[in-house]
């Protein structure tokens, strides 16, 4: 070592020792430890701010501090329990007499009568529920009867007998349902652009238990695909605030940072706003066709161009629109592009159990190519039980439901779906026209399909919803802005005028007698929408769910 450098180091050491000699050894030991602690706290704070934003972080800290005041936490918990009890109504009392263990001796055919009696406790949903039941008529009519036979009736035919115990996990044993699933996926893909040259000719997918699982799988596949392609280890996805809550679930399940971006003035995904959030960790952006809250289609072409240019995945949620929009377009309705014909779309979810009129528990997730879909699968090579591979989140899957979906699609055909689409689109237009004629109400945006959301500047819309509930209607309460919506199905075709009359009467009732309805939920919905501490609202929902199931 150079002598001058060595001399400089010795002088520095002597100077440092001289300076530090004025401090006690314990102080010298604690100082760096304290510095590390402060640095760790700052790092944690920065991480939380990055995840939740500065405003939410500071508000959360403030509310946590307030709860430390003696008596405040107990008061908040007591008030929270009141809200939970209100949400439950008489839920607890309805559970009196519920069985908690197996009967000693089997009940045999008596089970049928018990189940028949229990069915009477269900709400009378025919024509009065938003969405929920998409098939027209009653359980004993037309397509309803066919699906019942295919999936649940054991008396009138043997279709369910044939497939009740089948499971596509066992490819070599139950080749019938393997074929049914393949054909359901292929027929669905054909509706959504698989035959277009622009699709690339590799569209593939699987059946799932519902829209949420389809979305979960699409997000998981996108995450792993982008990790393999770009090496992204801290994945982020960007969605408009109108996107389904299944993406929140996916973000929690798969450890993905979720950015929710405000919509534009037309209540569509704001492409420019989404673009500002894209960074080196972005794996996925999302669009809906249409969105659940307001029935509005996001600008899929613009989002596809953004995704393609950024080299990221783009999922389109067609859970509601998959079996309506293709036929509405052919019928001449002004439907913007929404499927695999749009460059940049990498995956699509579509529910067969909604407007596909299949039994509940059937959905499809589609991918542009096999390279992406492979990341959906899970293969296990080190299990003592042998080699294992599964395509979806479930291992065993009910072949009877797959058979029911196939039966529904084959029985209706393109002509059946086209006629259904014509009916519900026309009903939607009639409902929109009727709402516009009620001066106290306004429609949210410009609905593209069969969901009509509406609010009011003159009356409390949640009180209107409570009055409608008292008349037997089951609509969906929305927030930001406060509104309610009806998702039009074939059940509503014969009751359009009844709905509009009850809506007019409900608005007039609230206008003449404003204030909470006895037993209504308007105060809770209103307060929840305005409550700044969203963690408290989240706790309310968790407590409600915990005591309800």
UniProtKB/TrEMBL annotation:
Principal location listed in the UniProt entry: endoplasmic reticulum
Enzyme superclass (EC):
lyase
**Entry EC number(s):** 4.1.2.27
Membrane-topology descriptor: Single-pass type III membrane protein
Which UniProt keyword terms apply here? Answer: Endoplasmic reticulum, Lipid metabolism, Lyase, Membrane, Pyridoxal phosphate, Signal-anchor, Sphingolipid metabolism, Transmembrane, Transmembrane helix
- Gene Ontology annotations of biological process type: carboxylic acid metabolic process; sphingolipid catabolic process
List residues, modification N6-(pyridoxal phosphate)lysine: 354
Cofactor(s) the record lists: pyridoxal 5'-phosphate
Q: In which pathway does it act?
A: Lipid metabolism; sphingolipid metabolism; Sphingolipid metabolism
Q: Where in the cell is it found?
A: Endoplasmic reticulum membrane
Cited Pfam families = Pyridoxal_deC
A single Gene Ontology CC annotation of this entry is: endoplasmic reticulum membrane
One function term, GO molecular function aspect: sphinganine-1-phosphate aldolase activity
Domain of life, source organism: Eukaryota
> Family per UniProt?
Belongs to the group II decarboxylase family. Sphingosine-1-phosphate lyase subfamily.
Q: By what name is this protein known?
A: Sphingosine-1-phosphate lyase
């Amino acid at each position: 070592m150079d002598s001058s450098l060595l001399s400089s180091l010795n002088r520095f050491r002597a100077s440092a020792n001289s300076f530090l000699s004025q401090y006690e050894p314990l102080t010298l030991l604690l100082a760096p430890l304290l510095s590390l602690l402060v640095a760790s706290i700052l790092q944690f704070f920065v991480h939380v701010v990055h995840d939740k934003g500065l405003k939410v972080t500071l508000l959360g800290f403030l509310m946590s501090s307030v709860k430390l005041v003696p008596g405040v936490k107990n008061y908040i918990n007591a008030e929270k329990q009141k809200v939970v009890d209100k949400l439950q109504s008489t839920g607890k009392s309805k559970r009196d007499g519920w069985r908690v263990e197996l009967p000693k001796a089997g009940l045999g055919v008596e089970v049928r009568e018990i189940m028949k009696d229990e069915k009477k406790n269900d709400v009378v949903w025919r024509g009065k529920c938003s969405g929920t039941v998409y098939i027209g008529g009653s359980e004993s009519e037309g397509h309803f009867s066919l699906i019942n036979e295919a999936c649940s009736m054991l008396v009138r035919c043997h279709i369910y007998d044939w497939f009740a115990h089948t499971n596509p996990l066992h490819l070599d044993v139950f080749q019938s349902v393997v074929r049914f699933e393949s054909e359901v996926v292929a027929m669905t893909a054909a509706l959504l652009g698989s035959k277009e040259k622009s699709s690339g000719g590799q569209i593939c997918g699987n059946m799932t238990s519902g829209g949420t699982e389809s979305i979960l799988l699409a997000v998981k596949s996108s995450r792993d695909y982008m990790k393999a392609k770009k090496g992204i280890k801290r994945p982020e996805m960007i969605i408009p605030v109108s996107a389904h809550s299944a993406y929140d679930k996916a973000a929690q399940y798969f450890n993905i940072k979720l950015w929710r971006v405000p919509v534009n003035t037309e209540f569509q995904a704001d492409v420019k706003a989404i673009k500002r959030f894209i960074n080196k960790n972005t794996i996925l952006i999302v669009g809906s066709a249409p969105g659940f809250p307001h029935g509005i289609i996001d600008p899929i072409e613009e989002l596809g161009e953004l995704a393609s240019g950024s080299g990221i995945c783009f999922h389109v949620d067609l859970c509601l629109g998959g079996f309506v929009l293709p036929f509405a377009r052919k019928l001449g309705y002004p439907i913007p592009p929404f499927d695999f014909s749009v460059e940049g779309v990498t995956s699509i979810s579509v529910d067969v159990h909604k407007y596909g009129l299949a039994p509940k528990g059937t959905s499809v997730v589609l991918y542009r190519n096999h390279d992406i879909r492979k990341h959906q699968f899970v293969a296990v090579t080190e299990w003592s039980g042998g080699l294992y591979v599964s395509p979806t989140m479930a291992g065993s899957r009910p072949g009877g439901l797959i058979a029911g979906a196939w039966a529904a699609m084959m029985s209706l055909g393109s002509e059946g779906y086209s006629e259904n689409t014509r009916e519900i689109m026309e009903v939607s237009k009639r409902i929109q026209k009727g709402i516009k004629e009620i001066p106290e109400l306004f429609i949210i945006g410009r609905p593209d399909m069969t969901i009509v959301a509406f609010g009011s500047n003159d009356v409390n819309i949640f009180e209107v919803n409570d009055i409608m509930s008292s008349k037997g209607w089951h609509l969906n309460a929305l927030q930001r802005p406060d509104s309610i919506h009806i998702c039009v199905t074939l059940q509503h075709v014969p009751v359009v005028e009844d709905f509009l009359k009850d809506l007019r009467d409900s608005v007039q009732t609230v206008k003449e007698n404003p204030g909470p309805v006895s037993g209504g939920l308007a105060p809770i919905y209103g307060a929840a929408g305005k409550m700044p501490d969203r963690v408290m609202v989240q706790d309310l929902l968790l407590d409600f769910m915990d005591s309800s199931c």
